[in-house]
User: What shape does this take?
Amino acid sequence: MYAEDTIAAIATPPGAGGIGIIRVSGPAAEAIADAIFSRRSLTPWASHQLYHGRVVRADGTAIDDGLAVLMRAPRSYTGEDVLEIHCHGSPAVLRLVLQRVMELGARPAAPGEFTKRAFLNGKLDLTQAEAVADLVRARTAEGTVQAADQLFGRLSERLDALRQQLLHAKACLELRIDFSEEDVDPRQAAPDDALLRSLLEIDALLATYRRGKLLREGVRVAITGRPNVGKSSLLNALLGTERAIVTALPGTTRDVIEDSADFDGLAVVLSDTAGLREAPGEIERVGIERAHRVARAADLTLIVLDTSVPLDEPSELLDMERTILVLNKIDLPSAWDEADLSPQAKRYPLVRVSAKELIGLEGLRRRVVETLGASQNDGLPPLTTARQRDALVQARESVVRALEGLEKNLAPELVAVDVAAALDQIGSITGAVTNEDVLDAIFREFCIGK
Ligand SMILES: Nc1nc2c(ncn2[C@@H]2O[C@H](COP(=O)(O)OP(=O)(O)OP(=O)(O)O)[C@@H](O)[C@H]2O)c(=O)[nH]1
Ligand SMILES: [Mg+2]
Assistant: This one.
């Protein structure tokens, strides 16, 4: 399926570190190990054993002192012979070692190529390979747990159970094809049930996608509103730090200030922006333009309103989709109430807080997560990529067509075609059915060395 050459890469991140690892996979791994790593023992490499020794150049001079391990096929990450050399984590040392590995016959690995080989050798299915990339990128504790779950095969198991349902439906249909009505026990041959159950399962899995996607990608939340309503105070309160300058003067914040926080496991990037008002000075005008752009680009916008002064809605923002109204300064006597809001503003969910007294913040965090459609799933392994979601949407369409076919008493042969299509679509998620383009698209997203 692929050229059986030997690939190599620096597997640790760029920059100086305690340890840096060079990874080599392919048929030349052992020969490279012999040539580059000088150890005291002259016996052949024992698989999966860590050796201490020196990394040496062609002329025998040492580059570094370190550890090396050879993991023989098929008991390795890629399923091929894999060599890992653990050196000191200096970029210069690692480059020298990598260069020497190349001289000895390896070529640079493409992004994700180690994991791609693991997939092609049947070590992982595609959802697990995607989980590897997610684990490397995970930003919150929950993101990590979710990716690890998927790596350990939880999503694969769910999909397999779904496949079994559909296979059962298909077998029922085949029974109807092969035998005439009167020869078949109708209970045994009822595919409707299995199809309906598959449909429910597909819908439940699809509902998990949004949280999975947001966990993976993080979300952008913009804080906007008129000057002096407490946007910067709210940013600070949500972050638990004095990140932005707060003063009693309107027009304090000019530029966009960003920082990230963890909302119920979601990695949220919060942007504080300049207060929106008419006829500002030159610097502030630029800031306000930026504020508009940030608000439009965000996944969710918080419009902060000050309840202690007469109501002043930033009406220019009231056409946006995912928005929450944050009524701030509830520790002060209020100058207006909800009934005074315009009809457009009333469409949005509303949360009352005091950024100064730290009241209502937990409720606001929860509202953000809910409004994003990212609440916790009840224990289902979430779908994490658009690829998985799209395949499942297609599978759903096929199952619906099959059910309609049964309803219309179509020939079982025709219904079976739709069930087979659904099976293929589900198979494409784990990679049981796949093609080279799909693989390329997946592994391109990886970092080099993984
Ligand atoms: N009492 C009370 N005062 C608040 C609250 N939130 C903010 N303030 C005060 O309101 C004033 C403005 O707060 P900022 O956070 O700077 O407001 P802002 O919306 O960022 O203002 P600009 O950057 O100028 O647009 C400051 O004096 C804050 O201390 C609150 O919940 N209660
Ligand atoms: Mg401010």
Notes: The pocket of guanosine-5'-triphosphate (ligand 1) is lined by residues 227-233, 246-248, 250-253, 274-275, 328-329, 331-332, 354-356 (CB under 6 Å). The chain is about 45% helix and 20% strand. The chain has a mean pLDDT of 91. The longest helix spans residues 154-178.
